Protein backbone atom coordinates (compact mmCIF):
# COMPACT_ATOMS: atom_id res chain seq x y z
CA UNK A 1 0.00 0.00 0.00
CA UNK A 2 2.83 2.36 0.91
CA UNK A 3 4.59 1.52 -2.36
CA UNK A 4 1.45 2.35 -4.35
CA UNK A 5 1.00 5.65 -2.51
CA UNK A 6 4.62 6.62 -3.11
CA UNK A 7 4.33 6.03 -6.85
CA UNK A 8 0.95 7.75 -7.28
CA UNK A 9 1.11 11.16 -8.93
CA UNK A 10 1.04 14.00 -6.44
CA UNK A 11 -2.29 15.81 -6.25
CA UNK A 12 -2.54 19.56 -6.58
CA UNK A 13 -3.67 19.83 -2.96
CA UNK A 14 -2.27 17.58 -0.25
CA UNK A 15 -5.36 16.16 1.46
CA UNK A 16 -3.42 13.75 3.70
CA UNK A 17 -3.87 15.69 6.90
CA UNK A 18 -6.41 17.39 9.15
CA UNK A 19 -8.56 20.05 7.52
CA UNK A 20 -7.97 23.74 8.03
CA UNK A 21 -10.64 25.76 9.82
CA UNK A 22 -11.45 29.44 10.23
CA UNK A 23 -12.59 30.56 13.68
CA UNK A 24 -14.46 33.79 14.38
CA UNK A 25 -16.02 33.78 17.84
CA UNK A 26 -18.49 30.92 17.92
CA UNK A 27 -18.44 30.73 14.10
CA UNK A 28 -16.32 27.92 12.67
CA UNK A 29 -16.08 26.97 9.00
CA UNK A 30 -13.64 24.84 7.05
CA UNK A 31 -11.43 26.62 4.53
CA UNK A 32 -12.78 24.31 1.79
CA UNK A 33 -16.41 25.27 2.50
CA UNK A 34 -15.49 28.96 2.78
CA UNK A 35 -13.76 28.80 -0.63
CA UNK A 36 -16.85 27.21 -2.23
CA UNK A 37 -19.25 29.78 -0.71
CA UNK A 38 -17.02 32.72 -1.71
CA UNK A 39 -16.71 31.26 -5.24
CA UNK A 40 -20.51 31.07 -5.53
CA UNK A 41 -20.84 34.71 -4.46
CA UNK A 42 -18.18 35.80 -6.98
CA UNK A 43 -19.83 33.83 -9.82
CA UNK A 44 -23.26 35.23 -8.85
CA UNK A 45 -21.98 38.82 -9.01
CA UNK A 46 -20.18 38.18 -12.30
CA UNK A 47 -23.34 36.59 -13.78
CA UNK A 48 -25.21 39.82 -13.08
CA UNK A 49 -22.49 42.24 -14.21
CA UNK A 50 -20.92 40.55 -17.24
CA UNK A 51 -22.60 41.28 -20.59
CA UNK A 52 -24.20 38.32 -22.36
CA UNK A 53 -23.05 37.56 -25.94
CA UNK A 54 -25.59 38.93 -28.39
CA UNK A 55 -27.25 36.27 -30.50
CA UNK A 56 -30.70 35.70 -31.96
CA UNK A 57 -33.16 37.57 -29.82
CA UNK A 58 -36.87 38.18 -29.94
CA UNK B 1 -74.44 -9.43 -49.69
CA UNK B 2 -74.45 -5.70 -49.14
CA UNK B 3 -73.16 -3.09 -51.56
CA UNK B 4 -69.71 -1.85 -50.85
CA UNK B 5 -69.62 1.70 -49.59
CA UNK B 6 -66.52 3.68 -50.48
CA UNK B 7 -64.44 4.44 -47.40
CA UNK B 8 -64.92 7.96 -46.12
CA UNK B 9 -61.98 9.80 -44.58
CA UNK B 10 -62.40 10.12 -40.84
CA UNK B 11 -62.63 13.67 -39.53
CA UNK B 12 -59.61 14.99 -37.70
CA UNK B 13 -59.44 13.84 -34.09
CA UNK B 14 -59.99 17.27 -32.66
CA UNK B 15 -63.16 17.72 -34.71
CA UNK B 16 -64.82 14.79 -32.96
CA UNK B 17 -67.30 15.68 -30.26
CA UNK B 18 -66.08 15.09 -26.71
CA UNK B 19 -66.83 11.48 -25.80
CA UNK B 20 -66.54 11.97 -22.06
CA UNK B 21 -63.69 9.49 -21.72
CA UNK B 22 -60.93 10.36 -19.26
CA UNK B 23 -58.24 9.98 -21.92
CA UNK B 24 -59.89 12.61 -24.11
CA UNK B 25 -60.39 14.91 -21.14
CA UNK B 26 -56.72 14.50 -20.15
CA UNK B 27 -55.53 15.15 -23.73
CA UNK B 28 -57.61 18.30 -24.10
CA UNK B 29 -56.46 19.62 -20.72
CA UNK B 30 -52.79 18.86 -21.53
CA UNK B 31 -52.98 20.47 -24.98
CA UNK B 32 -54.67 23.55 -23.56
CA UNK B 33 -52.17 23.92 -20.69
CA UNK B 34 -49.04 23.14 -22.65
CA UNK B 35 -49.36 23.51 -26.44
CA UNK B 36 -46.29 22.33 -28.43
CA UNK B 37 -45.13 25.88 -29.18
CA UNK B 38 -44.90 26.51 -25.41
CA UNK B 39 -43.31 23.14 -24.64
CA UNK B 40 -40.53 23.52 -27.24
CA UNK B 41 -40.23 27.26 -27.96
CA UNK B 42 -38.00 28.54 -30.76
CA UNK B 43 -37.59 32.00 -29.31
CA UNK B 44 -37.12 33.47 -25.86
CA UNK B 45 -37.78 37.01 -24.62
CA UNK B 46 -34.86 39.46 -24.86
CA UNK B 47 -34.47 39.65 -21.07
CA UNK B 48 -33.32 36.02 -21.00
CA UNK B 49 -30.03 37.17 -22.58
CA UNK B 50 -28.27 37.40 -19.23
CA UNK B 51 -25.80 35.04 -17.56
CA UNK B 52 -28.02 34.80 -14.47
CA UNK B 53 -30.67 33.04 -16.58
CA UNK B 54 -28.16 30.33 -17.57
CA UNK B 55 -27.83 28.67 -14.17
CA UNK B 56 -31.12 26.77 -14.35
CA UNK B 57 -30.05 24.84 -17.43
CA UNK B 58 -26.52 24.44 -16.03
CA UNK B 59 -28.10 22.78 -12.98
CA UNK B 60 -30.10 20.53 -15.28
CA UNK B 61 -26.98 19.61 -17.31
CA UNK B 62 -25.08 18.72 -14.12
CA UNK B 63 -28.09 16.65 -12.99
CA UNK B 64 -27.97 14.62 -16.21
CA UNK B 65 -24.25 13.88 -15.64
CA UNK B 66 -25.06 12.88 -12.04
CA UNK B 67 -27.75 10.46 -13.23
CA UNK B 68 -25.62 8.91 -15.98
CA UNK B 69 -22.49 8.49 -13.85
CA UNK B 70 -24.64 7.18 -10.96
CA UNK B 71 -26.26 4.62 -13.26
CA UNK B 72 -22.80 3.50 -14.41
CA UNK B 73 -21.63 3.09 -10.79
CA UNK B 74 -24.79 1.15 -9.87
CA UNK B 75 -24.33 -1.25 -12.79
CA UNK B 76 -20.62 -1.87 -12.22
CA UNK B 77 -20.60 -2.08 -8.41
CA UNK B 78 -18.37 -0.95 -5.51
CA UNK B 79 -15.48 -3.36 -6.15
CA UNK B 80 -15.11 -1.85 -9.61
CA UNK B 81 -15.23 1.79 -8.51
CA UNK B 82 -12.81 1.16 -5.63
CA UNK B 83 -10.18 -0.85 -7.53
CA UNK B 84 -10.09 0.10 -11.23
CA UNK B 85 -8.83 3.30 -12.84
CA UNK B 86 -12.01 3.81 -14.85
CA UNK B 87 -14.01 3.13 -11.70
CA UNK B 88 -12.08 5.80 -9.82
CA UNK B 89 -12.70 8.22 -12.68
CA UNK B 90 -16.47 7.57 -12.85
CA UNK B 91 -16.69 7.74 -9.06
CA UNK B 92 -14.96 11.14 -9.13
CA UNK B 93 -17.15 12.23 -12.05
CA UNK B 94 -20.22 11.39 -9.97
CA UNK B 95 -18.91 13.30 -6.94
CA UNK B 96 -17.80 16.41 -8.81
CA UNK B 97 -20.93 16.60 -10.95
CA UNK B 98 -22.89 16.62 -7.68
CA UNK B 99 -20.67 19.46 -6.40
CA UNK B 100 -21.32 21.43 -9.60
CA UNK B 101 -25.03 20.55 -9.43
CA UNK B 102 -25.28 22.20 -6.00
CA UNK B 103 -22.99 25.09 -7.01
CA UNK B 104 -25.19 25.96 -9.99
CA UNK B 105 -28.44 25.28 -8.12
CA UNK B 106 -27.58 27.66 -5.27
CA UNK B 107 -26.74 30.48 -7.73
CA UNK B 108 -29.99 29.66 -9.61
CA UNK B 109 -31.82 29.90 -6.26
CA UNK B 110 -30.21 33.26 -5.40
CA UNK B 111 -31.01 34.66 -8.84
CA UNK B 112 -34.66 33.58 -8.69
CA UNK B 113 -35.01 34.82 -5.10
CA UNK B 114 -33.84 38.33 -5.99
CA UNK B 115 -36.06 38.25 -9.11
CA UNK B 116 -39.04 37.33 -6.86
CA UNK B 117 -39.61 34.47 -9.31
CA UNK B 118 -42.93 33.50 -7.69
CA UNK B 119 -44.61 36.48 -9.43
CA UNK B 120 -47.12 35.91 -12.22
CA UNK B 121 -48.77 32.67 -10.99
CA UNK B 122 -45.35 31.03 -10.57
CA UNK B 123 -45.71 30.19 -6.86
CA UNK B 124 -45.98 26.45 -7.51
CA UNK B 125 -42.88 26.57 -9.74
CA UNK B 126 -40.97 28.24 -6.88
CA UNK B 127 -42.27 25.75 -4.28
CA UNK B 128 -41.43 22.73 -6.46
CA UNK B 129 -37.92 24.11 -6.97
CA UNK B 130 -37.49 24.56 -3.22
CA UNK B 131 -38.74 21.01 -2.51
CA UNK B 132 -36.41 19.67 -5.24
CA UNK B 133 -33.53 21.48 -3.49
CA UNK B 134 -34.38 19.76 -0.18
CA UNK B 135 -34.77 16.40 -1.94
CA UNK B 136 -31.34 16.95 -3.54
CA UNK B 137 -29.79 17.46 -0.09
CA UNK B 138 -31.30 14.15 1.11
CA UNK B 139 -30.08 12.39 -2.04
CA UNK B 140 -26.56 13.77 -1.68
CA UNK B 141 -26.51 12.89 2.03
CA UNK B 142 -27.40 9.24 1.36
CA UNK B 143 -24.73 9.28 -1.37
CA UNK B 144 -22.05 10.32 1.12
CA UNK B 145 -23.31 7.52 3.40
CA UNK B 146 -22.86 4.79 0.76
CA UNK B 147 -19.32 5.63 -0.35
CA UNK B 148 -18.31 2.53 1.67
CA UNK B 149 -15.16 4.12 3.06
CA UNK B 150 -14.02 5.66 6.36
CA UNK B 151 -15.56 8.99 5.36
CA UNK B 152 -19.02 7.44 5.05
CA UNK B 153 -18.60 5.64 8.39
CA UNK B 154 -17.74 8.92 10.09
CA UNK B 155 -20.70 10.75 8.50
CA UNK B 156 -23.10 7.93 9.45
CA UNK B 157 -21.94 7.74 13.06
CA UNK B 158 -22.19 11.52 13.45
CA UNK B 159 -25.58 11.78 11.68
CA UNK B 160 -27.30 8.97 13.60
CA UNK B 161 -27.54 11.11 16.74
CA UNK B 162 -29.18 13.94 14.79
CA UNK B 163 -31.61 11.58 13.05
CA UNK B 164 -32.35 9.72 16.30
CA UNK B 165 -33.08 12.87 18.30
CA UNK B 166 -36.60 13.33 16.80
CA UNK B 167 -37.08 9.52 16.68
CA UNK B 168 -36.79 9.24 12.89
CA UNK B 169 -33.92 6.77 13.22
CA UNK B 170 -36.40 3.99 13.90
CA UNK B 171 -37.62 4.31 10.30
CA UNK B 172 -34.66 5.92 8.56
CA UNK B 173 -31.50 4.32 9.93
CA UNK B 174 -28.36 5.99 8.58
CA UNK B 175 -26.27 3.09 9.92
CA UNK B 176 -28.20 0.64 7.72
CA UNK B 177 -26.07 0.53 4.56
CA UNK B 178 -28.65 -1.46 2.56
CA UNK B 179 -31.50 0.91 3.42
CA UNK B 180 -29.46 4.04 2.62
CA UNK B 181 -28.19 2.52 -0.66
CA UNK B 182 -31.73 1.75 -1.85
CA UNK B 183 -32.94 5.23 -0.89
CA UNK B 184 -29.97 6.70 -2.78
CA UNK B 185 -30.29 4.72 -6.01
CA UNK B 186 -34.09 4.32 -6.30
CA UNK B 187 -36.54 6.35 -4.22
CA UNK B 188 -34.74 9.68 -3.91
CA UNK B 189 -33.49 9.95 -7.54
CA UNK B 190 -36.97 8.96 -8.78
CA UNK B 191 -38.64 11.55 -6.55
CA UNK B 192 -36.09 14.20 -7.54
CA UNK B 193 -36.52 13.37 -11.21
CA UNK B 194 -40.32 13.76 -10.96
CA UNK B 195 -39.91 17.10 -9.16
CA UNK B 196 -37.45 18.37 -11.77
CA UNK B 197 -39.76 17.37 -14.66
CA UNK B 198 -42.76 19.06 -13.01
CA UNK B 199 -40.62 22.16 -12.30
CA UNK B 200 -39.54 22.34 -15.96
CA UNK B 201 -43.10 21.82 -17.27
CA UNK B 202 -44.34 24.65 -15.05
CA UNK B 203 -41.54 26.91 -16.33
CA UNK B 204 -42.69 26.13 -19.88
CA UNK B 205 -46.35 26.74 -18.99
CA UNK B 206 -45.83 30.06 -17.19
CA UNK B 207 -42.75 31.22 -19.11
CA UNK B 208 -39.39 32.40 -17.74
CA UNK B 209 -39.94 35.04 -15.07
CA UNK B 210 -39.22 38.57 -16.38
CA UNK B 211 -37.07 41.03 -14.43
CA UNK B 212 -38.96 43.24 -11.97
CA UNK B 213 -40.50 46.16 -13.88
CA UNK B 214 -40.58 44.32 -17.21
CA UNK B 215 -43.62 42.52 -18.57
CA UNK B 216 -43.55 39.02 -20.09
CA UNK B 217 -43.02 40.45 -23.61
CA UNK B 218 -39.89 42.27 -22.50
CA UNK B 219 -41.31 45.79 -22.34
CA UNK B 220 -41.17 48.10 -19.33
CA UNK B 221 -44.38 48.13 -17.30
CA UNK B 222 -46.87 50.93 -18.08
CA UNK B 223 -46.11 52.81 -14.88
CA UNK B 224 -42.40 52.81 -15.59
CA UNK B 225 -42.86 53.76 -19.27
CA UNK B 226 -44.69 56.86 -18.12
CA UNK B 227 -41.97 57.58 -15.58
CA UNK B 228 -44.33 57.24 -12.64
CA UNK B 229 -44.30 54.87 -9.70
CA UNK B 230 -47.10 52.35 -9.42
Model description:
The complex is a heterodimer of chains A (58) and B (230). Chain A has a domain at 20-49. Chain A has helices spanning 2-7, 31-49, and strands spanning 21-24, 27-30. Mean pLDDT of chain A is 81; it is low at 1-6. By secondary structure, chain A is α+β, with helices and mostly antiparallel strands. Helices cover 43% and strands 14% of the residues of chain A. Chain A contains two helices and two strands, in the order αββα. The longest helix of chain A is centred in the C-terminal third of the chain and has 19 residues, at 31-49. Chain A starts with a helix and ends in a 9-residue tail after the last helix. Chain B is mostly helical and 230 residues long. In chain B, helix 6 (123-145) runs antiparallel to helix 8 (177-206). The A-B interface holds A 36, 39-40, 43-44, 46-48, 50, 52, 54-58 and B 43-46, 49-52, 54-55, 99, 103, 106-107, 110-111, 218.
What are the defining features of this structure?
heterodimer; A: 2 helices; 2 strands; disordered N terminus; B: mainly alpha
Global structural class of chain A: alpha+beta
Mean pLDDT of chain B: 88
Low-confidence stretches of chain A: 1-6
**Tell me, what's the shape of chain B?**
globular
Amino acid sequence: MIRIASTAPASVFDLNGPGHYLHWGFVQISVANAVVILSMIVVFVLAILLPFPQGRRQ
Amino acid sequence: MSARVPAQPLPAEHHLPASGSWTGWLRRRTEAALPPEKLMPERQPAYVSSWIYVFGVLTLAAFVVVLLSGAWLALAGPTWWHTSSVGHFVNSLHLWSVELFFFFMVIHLWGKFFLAAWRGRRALTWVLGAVAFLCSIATAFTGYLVQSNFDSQWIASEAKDGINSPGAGAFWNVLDMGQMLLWHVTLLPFGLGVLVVLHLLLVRMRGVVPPIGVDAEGFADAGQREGGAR
